[in-house]
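Onboarding guide, step 5: your first structure request.
Type a short instruction followed by the sequence, for example:

Predict the 3D structure of this protein.
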Amino acid sequence: MSQSSTLAAQISAQLASKGLVPTQTWLSAFILTQRPTSPLAALTQTASFRLLASDITTSLSGTSTAGFPTDVLDASVKTRCLNQGPIVAQVLAVEDMSKSRWEQIEAIEALERGEGTRGREIVRVTAAEENEDDNSRVVNKGGGPHKLLLQDVRGVRVYGIELKGIEGVGVGMNIGSKMILRNVTVARGVVLLEPGTTTMLGGKIEVLHKSWRENRKAALKAAIEANERP
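The system replies with structure tokens like these:
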């Protein structure tokens, strides 16, 4: 076995222990950009960071990574437990179900003015704070439960609803964030998210996050207008 093949196998094994199994194409391309003499721990950490910033539909192996069943959206199935293995999913949208659409628009406009909230206090968000490491940023803990649009490695999309507050979930979270789902329950085509079955890994898909953030207010206003039509 060549040195690059051995290194690829070692990195793949380390990532698999975290629930991330990259495709051979992705892993080979990654190794070409790294120094083979770098410590394995450092290479694995870099690979993990890049996977969390990638689109899992192209970077993770569809044959080695569990996904949602093809009939996951079947609303005629009252409840079922998905226990076929840990499922990796990425977040494509998030909504605070405790707030009206107008309240969500007002929150967005507050952020556009550079304001955030700390408890009941309005605080100014500086540019430095805005540009901090996106994987460690603090999400808005107010409100909830939250509704998330999830996508698995095969591109299957399904909504998930927070039954209990989950660390890392909120309207300020990054679009493209990754999560691991273990033994989650699906009810009427909706994934029920709880701390015991949902582990947030972080990450961000820059292009999706930018698009979602820029278009979110317009989408909320369009939904309001649609409901107001006679």
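Each response can be followed by summary notes, for example: Residues 206-228 form the longest helix (23 residues).
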